[in-house]
Amino acid sequence: MDDKILLAHGSGGKLQQQLINEVFLPAFDNSVLNRMEDQASLVLPPGRAAFTTDSYVVNPLFFPGGDIGRLAVCGTVNDLAVGGSKPLYLSAGFIIEEGLPVGILRDIAFSMKKAADEAGVLIVTGDTKVVEKGHADQLFINTAGIGVTPDQISIRASSAQPGDAVLVSGYIGDHEIAVMLAREGIQLKSPIKSDAVPLNGMIQVLLSAVPDVRIMRDPTRGGLATTLNELAQSSQVTIKIFEKDLPVKDEVASACEIFGFDPLYLANEGKVIVIVPQRQAKTALQALQTHHYGQQAAIIGEVTKDQPGKVYLETKIGGMRIVDMMAGGQLPRIC
Amino acid sequence: MDDKILLAHGSGGKLQQQLINEVFLPAFDNSVLNRMEDQASLVLPPGRAAFTTDSYVVNPLFFPGGDIGRLAVCGTVNDLAVGGSKPLYLSAGFIIEEGLPVGILRDIAFSMKKAADEAGVLIVTGDTKVVEKGHADQLFINTAGIGVTPDQISIRASSAQPGDAVLVSGYIGDHEIAVMLAREGIQLKSPIKSDAVPLNGMIQVLLSAVPDVRIMRDPTRGGLATTLNELAQSSQVTIKIFEKDLPVKDEVASACEIFGFDPLYLANEGKVIVIVPQRQAKTALQALQTHHYGQQAAIIGEVTKDQPGKVYLETKIGGMRIVDMMAGGQLPRIC
């Protein structure tokens, strides 16, 4: 097999078939995909179907703790899981820049498989396009995902109520700082790793303990601040968080100081914001903490009704400030 | 709203919300999408679920008869329909090059909606990413689609049997020639238009008339020749087609002569190859021809068992030649 991707690998002919047979089928290997029809045929369990998509353009392709393939699987799995769905099947669409080494594509495909295995999902259908050198940046991946939501689950961004508690499942900001440092070629003694993980296992534990979770959302692009603003607006409530309770690693806090970032706006790829009735806050916290992806979970705030649609931060020294949605962007192409 | 796409339109913050509110929601407008959750919640009718994806990188974005948005809807609808599924829901992922005029994105979104309306599908979930100028080429779109296949339908690439008839639903090659001429800036007196259309309506008519269709496949990249080879290999049969019966427009045949293309390898975006038992060939033909997208349908060949996996063409002067899969590519980025 040629060791670099050629335009003809995307033209639908022999070379494309070879690429599929030598890279994608061995990596994703499952009986649905292996039938190689134009569409995957699936038997879904009872419940509502959930459907989501994300494209991934992260730069660089590999970074401490992950790569674009792991991100493409975890991100879409998490978008299903935060709706209370059980993620089942993924599609994968690859847009490749001519000249990409085939070995890189193979490594990324196997990384996708590894993440899919951990999440318990199958990659059942896919597509490959190749564009001329200079018309893309190495590799972009789109994944779409199908899950099934049990009938009794009803999780909506509009469900927060005054008196509810706000939790986050662990340290914030790791992903964006890891990608930023990798992009700039900065190596630390103890590197900050991306938190890119599939959250469906932990969320299952949470939902078993607290079936009436009101809201779950993963604070990806735009960070905790932007996601909380979306929730405050959707639910027409105030969300107040406490700076002292926010889980931020010392290394991430230091990097933020050096580079002028605010951890509240940093993207995460393995965290979930959880809003539950106050009386269940401790049960939810304990459930999250029993899972290895939720060990640093914390109760970080509360829902009130003073200023519908607004988010406030009580600072460590007791001041209060409005936390707005992200206006511009801290860093492009973090996912 | 700024008139060009900025990096911040992809960063998850205020500008992204504005782009969604001012471009995508007005275009795609439907109750599932408008809920703006991280995942669409769907109630699927009974049957097996079908799931497919394609990315679209066509250059130029607009061409006679279509645009990248129309293509992105029709292509994915057709990949579901040729499996005998009823297409229901699409996702849409946009990868945008910084600097793209917002008006172009809006036109393409409305073109997607128009095609989706014709196909009777809803665009229910989406994603937007923006990459720096020079790191993509204006716009790439991924769509994934969900359909439902009635339990009695069983259409597989491995189902062709000796004695079956091979049909195609109309003129071949229009799409690739239309895109090629648009890319080169060549204008003809009577322009050749892309055939990009949703085929699910016509296929429904066909399946009502001939429920035991053995195979349907849309000959997109790689053209009729490559798709027939895939089917001959999957079914382990010989497929023999007759040059005199192939529907090719005079203008397309002329363009092929001038530019050195073979119509058998040209991509189509609104045609389907149909294989049926010989005794149902005429019924299938008539069913296709009653639909406006199948008026030029023709019986073009037959399935035999002489050389499993091979495709032959009987030329107009009575010669016989092997038709291989496409080896390289005729033209990159045709879809």
Fold and architecture overview:
- 2 copies of one chain form a homodimer.
- The radius of gyration of chain A is 21 Å and the shape is globular.
- Chain A is of the alpha+beta class.
- In chain A, strands 9-11-8-12-10-13-14 form a 7-stranded mixed β-sheet. In chain A, strands 2-7-5-6 form a 4-stranded mixed β-sheet.
- Chain A is built from 9 helices and 14 strands.
- In chain A, 60% of the residues are buried.
- The interface between A and B is large, with 79 and 78 residues.
CATH topology of the largest domain in chain A: Phosphoribosyl-aminoimidazole Synthetase, Chain A, domain 2
Give the full name of the CATH homologous superfamily of the largest domain in chain A. Answer: PurM-like C-terminal domain
Ends of chain A: how far apart? 30 Å
Order of adjacent strands in the largest pleated sheet of chain A: 9-11-8-12-10-13-14
Characterize the overall form of chain A.
Answer: globular
Count of DSSP E strands of chain A? 14
What low-confidence regions of chain A span 5 or more consecutive residues with pLDDT below 50? none
In the CATH hierarchy, the architecture of the largest domain in chain A is: Alpha-Beta Complex
Radius of gyration of chain A: 21 Å
Average pLDDT metric of chain A: 96
The secondary-structure class of chain A comes to alpha+beta
Counted by DSSP, the helix tally of chain A is 9
Most extensive interface between two protein chains, with residue counts: A-B, 79 and 78 residues
Q: Hey, roughly how much beta strand do the residues of chain A contain?
A: 15-25%
Helical fraction of chain A: 25-40%
| Domain count of chain A | 2
Largest sheet of chain A: 7 strands, mixed
